[in-house]
Amino acid sequence: MKLPRFKANEEQKSWFFYDWANSAYITTIATVLYAPYLTSVAERAACGFVGDEDRKCTEHLSVLGLSVSAGSLVFYVVTLATVISAFILPIVGAIADRVQSKKTLMARLAWSGAAVAALMFFVTGTNWQLGAGLLVVANLFYAASIVVYDAILVEVAEPDERDRISSQGWAFGYLGGGLLLAVNLAIVTVKPFGLSTEMAVRISLLSAAIWWAYFTFIPYRGIKDREPRGIPPEEGVTLMQRSFGQLFRTLKELKNYPQTLLFLVAYLFYNDGIQTVIYSASVYGDKQLGFGTSILIATILIVQFVAFGGALIFGRLAARIGSHKTILGGLVVWIFVVCFGFFLPEKQILPFLLLAVAIGLVLGGTQALSRSFFSNLIPRGREAEYFSLYQACERGTSWLGTLVFGLVHQLTDSYRPAILALIAFFVIGGLLLWKLDPKKGIIEAGNQPPALV
């Protein structure tokens, strides 16, 4: 398989392939298929049938003694997983700083997550409990592997090339996830060998797990092991004790870098909005707008390939006006995207596809540039620690958006006001980012500001 013509060495190309590998889980499972599938399983358990536009399921499930709307279950599950991740991910990053083989730690986390994702094939009938539990565990393994993946970026790329390598990794990931999604679109649409829609979806879930596990072998074999750097050995102290100690030191020292801390808070909010849009898109299209599974997959497929170009386009735009202004412009577009989504008419494909194109452009650009921009705000020699906190904000603390989305749906029995409520996350995040002084933050971190920030 030939890689796109990126200016990267062989080890960096191997690093790209983990984005290629794990994007299958994010696209096929987390974004497109599993949320509406688990919702249907929950509706079958609550009401004895799968809700649709003519016969909506209004019954609630009993979860640990709490009454939970079947349509909101998946968002509460994602919320639970991300809250747990908020405590786990920084510890994983601290451990990654000290292990002798980061690639082995990353691969083991990835293969564990892929094994859990493969078990989603067995979620059938009314067994929503199994489905919910697997989603929590798979999300935790995925997020933990990404923490180590980002820490490896510091080792495979020099400081002056990390922006480029980071953006290329994002773009390559969108391409890989999109290709598998195209295959799954064909499976769900054509239903070969007389497959039912449910079986086609389950096979697609299994294919994503296999893809994730198989392509993880490429970075595992292609990335070199390096000795932990800048961390003196501590006699008589366990790895876990050292990792907790590093986490507490990093959190304590954050007050010395107020602009870096401000960015992390801003990113927590606007990324929360982005992640909730990603998680809710398929459910919104299915349950609110009345589109079938094949249309939803095709739409997300458009998002994937547009996001591939969006990451590269935003990178070029940042080279002209600076990444700070480019990200702010992207957040303005996100606000318009959410507003447009609120007014989308049911069962009209063209407006839905236009929305997908807009999401793809800003999705790839804001995610790629956020990681690149943050790399300039990290104190030298502390990249892995701070990227752990970054991932905690990206994957581990992005819980409020899904919680708000689920609560608003439960209160209104509609996904439209739920999607509109997400505007607040982009507004708050954008205002905090606008307040940030990028050059001051870069100097505080001990780095040289580039010509454009």
UniProtKB/TrEMBL annotation:
Main location: membrane
Location of this chain's protein in the cell: Endomembrane system
Domain of life: Bacteria
Keywords, alphabetical: Membrane, Transmembrane, Transmembrane helix, Transport
Entry's transmembrane regions: 15-35, 73-96, 108-128, 134-157, 169-187, 199-220, 261-281, 293-314, 326-343, 349-369, 414-434
UniProt cross-references to InterPro entries, sorted A to Z: Atg22-like, ATG22/LtaA_families, MFS_trans_sf
Membrane topology: Multi-pass membrane protein
PANTHER family hit by this protein: AUTOPHAGY-RELATED PROTEIN 22
Listed name of the protein: UMF1 family MFS transporter
Protein species of origin: Aeromicrobium panaciterrae
